[in-house]
Amino acid sequence: MKIQLDGIKDDRFVRPLTHIVQLFFEEADLHFEMIDSPEFTVHIDVTEGDHTIRANAMGILHSTAKRYEATFEQNVSAEETEKERFRLIKSTVSYVLLSVLEEVTGMVQQWGILTGVRPTKLLHKKLQEGKSKEAAHAELKEDYKIQDHKIALMQSIVDRQLDVVPDLYDLGKEVSIYIGIPFCPTKCAYCTFPAYAINGKQGKVDSFLGGLHFEIREIGRWLKENNINITTIYYGGGTPTSITAEEMDLLYEEMYESFPSVEKIREITVEAGRPDTITPEKLQVLNKWNIDRISINPQSYIQETLKAIGRHHTVEETINKYHLARSMGMHNINMDLIIGLPGEGLEEFQYTLDETQKLMPESLTVHTLSFKRASEMTQNKEKYKVADRNEITRMMELATNWTASNGYTPYYLYRQKNILGNLENVGYSLPGQESIYNIMIMEEKQTIIGLGCGASSKFVHPETGKITRFANPKDPKSYNDGFEQYTKDKIIILNELFDINKTQV
Ligand code: SF4
């Protein structure tokens, strides 16, 4: 639909309002200036008072000449910072725009105006401020237009997280570690992670691992010197089991030697996402270093789908490797599934759930396909036919019901832009098998230090919660050229964050 939006002059509104329109129309044609023959015109007025911010949207659908109107007002205190005041104006304007678009299209946005990644973080914040659950829920409904069933989902996730990590709000004094290994056997079509096809690149792998060992040593030394403990470690990528068993062995040896009190770390996870990388030798190495939480990711149990998305392994291989891992001591296996893969509908997804039921992994992460700008799939969108919004929603309902009736409970969730049906990704687990790292990354209550290629660090101030980000480069060459400097930079940030007055390295 061709939409003309009048009355908004500030460029800072362009992105958030475009996101709101995109919730309704996949190919949003939104203009902030006068255009020829718009299909829908909406005029937004904002009135700022000392104590209130009020927005009014008046829309007209030209094909029917029908008018639509919405008004919303929020309180604002005189002491509010400029930034907070702007945030309130933005949410007030988003609210009225969303309201008229809901009326015009007849669609109800389950997450309301919330387009951010971490809805549960918002609820944690309100509860931490001392608000009752009822008051916090009322605010989520009134200020963001979130539907009741999504608020209930958020609350059950927050409750579950606090059961699993009762000291979640105090973990700012510890850190978690993310280790990024940027290699995979082949590149999947929807992937935007740093993942380089490994075949024939041994030279590159060797130099990359040299840099990674250096980072682990130096960061480990800093943590030991400053008595800072590690809560969780996560090996991701890429596929960290793409490297050889010997390389994995040396890496974990380095981890044990360099990091403080590794035996006390609450959880160590290694992504073994691609079943074609799992071998008995690599599982033995994981056993040797007491690592029993891995991820084996089927994504789908339909062979044609795997072929279409560029995963060069068979469904049978996923199942065999799952049994192999289980028989060799992996007690906590996560499996990722994706709703809405090309060519898949309800029937295919039901088949995938039926196959999952035969395995019953300890945890299951259900993603909804998202079209990320840089992926092969987005750049050649016409090649990949995906289910429509209604079917995607029904597939998500299928996942919700299936997990509930098989003993899984949701324990984290996150959303992405351009996600099919504007839904979410949900992590489920059997009782007591939740991944603490996933909770840490979602709720942003502690610093996560990223080591290796494409690893982003998120520094969370232990008292103020202020977040500073730092990204290692995504390609192995730039990483190899600069890993010493990236390590130094991170240590400088860590010294400031934990108020340590010395420069190391
Ligand atoms: S296995 Fe994962 S990281 Fe590797 S190419 Fe596929 S989606 Fe990307």
From TrEMBL:
Annotated Pfam families: Radical_SAM
GO molecular function, one term: 4 iron, 4 sulfur cluster binding
Domain Radical SAM core: 169-409
Gene3D superfamilies: tm_1862 like domain
Annotated CDD domains: Radical_SAM
PANTHER family the record matches: COPROPORPHYRINIGEN III OXIDASE (PTHR13932), OXYGEN-INDEPENDENT COPROPORPHYRINOGEN-III OXIDASE-LIKE PROTEIN HEMZ (PTHR13932:SF1)
Protein name (database record): Coproporphyrinogen III oxidase
